[in-house]
Specification:
mainly alpha
């Protein structure tokens, strides 16, 4: 989370804020010192060049240029441009925090309305909350670099205990170009309806309360994704950045201590060598710009960014343990990984792919935490469900179909004469170079009658909560 200094300002006292000025972690000094050193070095270079190396005529040209730059640099509306930009960025920053999907309210509603002190009742409540936590993890790993490094692949989510192997198969079985964070919430909805049919949710009013709280939770997950998708317009960010850097580029010459233009100005002229007020101005304006850069995306790894890994650990412990505390009951049925645990492990993993699946979707993490870019390659349409009966006849009565929800090329090897096979083809270097088969992620779907098509759809969306 952000660097907290609440304790230091708990009491208003003399020079109470002074202690905060000497902190390094999360400070403006840590954020700005490189740019500040570059500006000071560039200013000193021009100053030494003017004082030591220019001829008299060249000094006159430099002095006229300095006065001209100083006169017209004042026309750049720095306070207005930066003030409005940082205000918008701060509102966006706070909106992202308030949109974080905390499971507390949903957990209270589940505990109060899904009844049963037996093992089946406990299993229902814990599974419902596990689906809610799984949805938040799927959305966070697509927008947060910290979470993406922790859960680099969906198998890492399974290993962490948020999802079972069967649920992973159903999730991968759905071919969608968009983020599938909503899928566990659909399982939640189906499981809540099943609990109503079993009489564990007493009436429709309680079920409606469950669904309202679920929709509120889903809305927050969706809002986080939209914040990541729709940024502050790039043109405005460019205008602000160009305004700040061009202003201080002019200041490198315009704020030099040159000889006065008129003789009577010698009486009031000071040659300080070090431009104290210009350096303060740089610190304020450039620091203001850095604040905007820092808070425009709080899901990175800066000191003041949201600590999403801690939030995930907090959410799973609150929702899974508290939902048990409110229903003291005894031993297990089908158990999740944390069934008997009072503390939770923190599995870490180590890399990602594209449409907009989240800003971290393509992020690859090497041992040095460097990002690799994926080469764009042709995306071919893939059939997910068995074709119509007329089409099956044309296929020569094939016993089944292999399909893969990936960008792919078709393998025409003789070993696959009687089935359609799709392989993942990755080429990280030259797109024209021969590609190698890295993996094969195929799902075999048995052909069925066209009448069974609808039942397959229903079965795929409701299967996980029955395991």
């Amino acid at each position: 989370m952000t660097v907290s200094y609440t304790l230091e300002v708990a009491n208003a006292r003399f020079a109470g804020f002074t202690k905060l000025l000497f902190r390094w972690r999360g400070s403006i000094y840590k954020l700005l010192y490189k740019e500040f050193l570059v500006f000071c070095s560039a200013y000193a270079t021009f100053s030494v060049l003017y004082r030591c190396f220019l001829t008299e005529d060249q000094m006159g040209v430099f002095e006229r240029a300095a006065r001209h730059c100083n006169k017209f640099a004042k026309l750049i509306p720095m306070s207005f441009v930066l003030g409005f930009y940082v205000t918008q960025a701060f509102q966006r920053w706070w909106g992202q925090y308030t949109s974080f999907p905390l499971p507390d309210n949903l957990m209270m509603v589940v505990s109060g309305n899904v009844h049963g002190t037996d093992e089946r009742g406990r299993l229902l409540r814990r599974t419902l909350m596990r689906y809610a936590n799984l949805s938040s993890i799927l959305i966070l790993r697509s927008i947060s670099t910290r979470v993406r490094k922790r859960f680099h692949q969906l198998e890492d989510v399974v290993e962490a205990g948020f999802m079972t192997e069967d649920e992973l198969k159903v999730l991968n079985h759905l071919n969608s170009d968009f983020n599938k964070y909503w899928m566990p919430l659909a399982w939640f909805s189906n499981l809540a309806s099943q609990a109503r049919q079993e009489g564990r949710v007493k009436d429709d009013v309680a079920l409606r309360l469950l669904m309202d709280e679920l929709n509120n939770y889903r809305g927050k997950c969706s809002m986080l994704f939209h914040y990541d998708w729709i940024s502050i317009p790039l043109v405005y960010t460019q205008v602000v950045t160009i305004a700040v850097y061009s202003f201080f580029a002019f200041c490198l010459i315009g704020r030099q201590f040159v000889r006065p233009e008129k003789l009577d100005e010698h009486k009031v002229h000071l040659d300080l060598y070090v431009p104290i007020f210009t350096l303060l101005e740089f610190f304020f304006y450039a620091g203001w710009l850095k604040v905007g850069e820092l808070i425009i995306n709080p899901f990175g790894e800066d000191d003041d960014d949201f600590e999403t890994n801690q939030l995930i650990d907090r959410n799973i412990q609150v929702s899974m343990l508290a939902v048990d505390e409110m229903h003291q009951n005894l031993p297990p049925l089908q158990k999740d990984k944390y069934w008997t645990e009072k503390s939770f492990s923190r599995p870490f993993a180590s890399a990602g792919r594209p449409i907009f699946m989240g800003s971290t979707y393509d992020m690859r993490v090497s041992d040095e935490d460097e990002e690799d870019e994926l080469v764009d390659y042709q995306q071919q349409p893939v059939m997910v469900w068995p074709p119509a009966a007329t089409k099956q006849k044309k296929n020569g009565g094939r016993s089944g179909r292999f399909c893969c929800c990936c960008r792919s090329n078709t393998d025409d090897s003789p070993d696959h004469k009687d089935s359609d096979v799709t392989n993942i083809m990755l080429n990280k270097s030259d797109p024209a170079a021969p590609v190698q088969i890295q993996d094969q992620c195929s799902i075999r779907l048995e052909q069925k009658d066209p009448q069974d098509h609808q039942s397959d759809l229903i079965h795929a969306s409701s299967e996980p909560h029955q395991n």
